[in-house]
Design goal:
heterodimer, A: 474 residues, alpha/beta, 7-stranded mixed β-sheet, globular, B: 314 residues, mainly alpha, 14 helices, 2 strands
Amino acid sequence: MKVSRRDFLKSAALMAAGTTLAACGSPTAAPAAPAATQAPATTKAPAQTGPVTITYLVRTDIQPTLIKWGEDTVAEFTKKNPNIKVEMIGVPWGDYNAKLLAMYAAGTPPEVSANYAAGFGTFILNKAIVPLDDYIKADKVDLTVLEQGAIDAVTRDGKLWALPLANQPIVTFYNMDLFDKAGVKYPTVDWADKSWNNEAYEKMAASLTKNVDDPKTAVWGGSYYEGQLGVGLFWRYGIDPFNNTGGPEKTDGYKTGKLTNVYYDQPKYIEAMQWLVDLTWKKKVSPRTSDTDALNQAVGWFFLSGRVAMAGEGTWRLGDIFKAKPAWKWGIAPLPFGPAGTNICPTFNDSWMLSSKSKNPDAGWKFLKFVGLEDGAKMYADTTGFMPAKKDLFNNFFDSIMKAEGFGMKREDLVKVLTDGFKVSFPAPGKTIDRFPEFNTAYNQTTGPIKNNEKPVEVGMKEVQAKFKSLITS
Amino acid sequence: MTTVDQAQSVLSGIGKKRFRFSLGAQEAMWFYIFVGPWLLSFFIFTLGPMLASFYFSFTQYNAIQPPVWIGLKNFVTLYNDPVFWKSINVTFTFSGIFVPVNLGVSLFLAAMLNLRVPAMRVIRTIYYLPSVLPEVVTGLVWIWIFNPDFGLLNYILYLTTGIKGPNWLGSEAWVMPAVIISALWGMGSGVIIFLAALQGVPQEMYEAAELDGANFLHRYFHITLPMISPVILFNFLVGTIGALQTFARIYVMTQGGPNYASYFYNLYLYSNAFSYFRLGLASAQAWILFVVIMILTMLILRTSGRWVYYAGGR
């Protein structure tokens, strides 16, 4: 049969129109879901009888082990719970919020997601998650198996809003080879050793620093931990930007989620920031932001370049070291004491939340429990390099570090540094305050010129103060 | 079938009139069948979201809870927000410098690439190549180029002039020049369009002008520019709209910093929508940008009658 060009075009148009209409129509051919799966999202949904599908949004950057852990967890869970199908969606940290919001807007939020980028406060504020207390009570879950600090960090108004999977302290990573070459003694492993302070840190960094005027061969003594909104620096000065009477324990906003005042332009904050800026621009023992940016771009994390002797960072960086397998020896130490005689260790909990819009909250909870308290948590401690919140898994985590390439410390020293840090820890603001992303952007934007030595500290801190003030009152 | 049966069946058809659409109705039917899928997609994926965002711009909406009508409050909030005005200032400063420079340099490059020299195809390909690379990738390359210590630009600057270059992306004063330079990298598509236009100018015009004694500048300003003026208008319009919508490059290179010095309008819109859970406010921002672009486009088109030459009339 001969088909004319006109006939061919007509047929093509009809097929295209048909396909479009079919795509827009409702999927009538799909099998009807069991009634139980259509239940509205409440903390107490009716019992599910048939197979259900839940969605799980997992972070996939930093290290490939995290993806593998996610996949293995899903496989193991499905094996034990054949009636629940888990769809894992991987998304990098930077896009996590955007993806999560897009899923909410589309009416298909993931049952289980994490408090990575925005902290859980923002999710409570926007009624995106539900408290887990009813489930905890019904399943008689023993929360004492988890690190108390991690539990406190996700509790608000007496309700538990997320289940902590990881609880990670900030420590000082150091390059043992650079210390040996410079003939400098390693830092202490004791969080109570007050001789390990900012002054000692500065001296040690100076001894380790070489050729700073030649970026191609430079070795920098240390990159001091400034932390979210500067609290890593300020807390060691005995101050917190959101109260004028003391450290973080005096800030109600960390409990309520709402910041009510700010004090960045006060002399103590200016003094602390000046000290930090001087480490880079006056003493020249710390790399500039542009240096760390370049090294980060080259090797993923500047410390892995082998050209920064000390780096204050979270234990989540262990995964990067596992992957990089450095040819030099490395270790970890506490944070140095500040002038106020404190060395408060900010901690970052990665916790998993249950969506308020979940179509299958019971199945979601089952999976969440598996991830946070059962086999999923064990696999996490064994493989990812993230410090677990579950205390009986600490040893699995320590074992994974002892096996890491180049790790040069004794096991008991490692255990001491990582567990004693919790005695002086306080949750980082990013995990507790509402609207954290807005405050974080404001801090990073306004302090940029100060840290790049483009603006006097006093002038810059007034701008930080003004910006925060306007955000708090808005 | 017997002959009698055949005759009966033929006879039974007589008197029955077969219904046929008129030619015009048939054409209309096929027109709608052909454009149907695209019209449907337009309504569902473009017009629908646009109307939805128009509604959201008058609501408090976070994508999680249902939108709550708040009237003009989002627009008032934006009016009182210094970051909003800063982002407008940054975006218009960039557009005001980038668009004319981009047009001028593209036209110059197109003229150069129109010369008849050996290996010109290879040279044209090289100039066009950056345009096909994703902005995210080129953004990462530019971060390295602009690095004050390790970067190529400051290295060349120091080698050739002895000047120690600035902290391009870390300085409030230098970040905008850096962004403009990096944006010029992607001018290849404009160059190709100009090149095509230049090659479409009839040679006999130049020959006639030469016979009349016109020099190079006369020929350029009185033949080349008028003849390609519709293409200049096109590149000007597309360039302006693109510049006002700058996002990916900034998101990768500077995140709007330092101190909001490169905080483009669309970056703020994106932050409001996807970092701060303020989709209502972001929708209001999107509509403000839409209206601004519409007005600018209309102004450009209105004034184009004075400087654009159409050989065949308009």
